[in-house]
Amino acid sequence: MSDYKQLYETSAVNTGGRDGFSYLADGSYEVKISTPKGMGGTGEGQNPEQLFALGYGACFHGALEVVKGQHKVTNASQVLNTVRLFKKPEAADFKLEVEIQVGIQDLDREATQKLADEAHAVCPYSKAVAGNIEVFVKAVDYDASQEK
């Protein structure tokens, strides 16, 4: 890491695991954590996979914006992250898979895929999970109905 300059640091605390509570150490954010109903939990709070999808999506989109800027592309873009949790039957062995769908307004899928692949190569989350989580990056049509 000696070639890198630290830009930011944050810390989070969890109590109770998947049926507990998580918060940022600086007190700026807190969330109830619960196991999804589909996994036998209450589903009353958020789960780690949802939070990972949010974080990875925001980080990936940030990397995409940097790459778009390098290519002088100013079109609006959107990123949809789907995180899947798998378990081996009869074993306490779990793994994640992530599908990242990228749409860039008024850009064809081939050009979008090129930019998305470049973003994947520089995204800190993508680098962190490389070799550990299967990540599929796919260009899709931009969907204006998803704008907020």
UniProtKB/TrEMBL annotation:
GO BP annotation list: response to oxidative stress
InterPro entries: KH_dom-like_a/b (IPR015946), OHR (IPR019953), OsmC/Ohr_fam (IPR003718), OsmC/Ohrsf (IPR036102)
Pfam family, one: OsmC
Domain of life: Bacteria
UniProt similarity note: Belongs to the OsmC/Ohr family.
Descriptive protein name: Ohr family peroxiredoxin
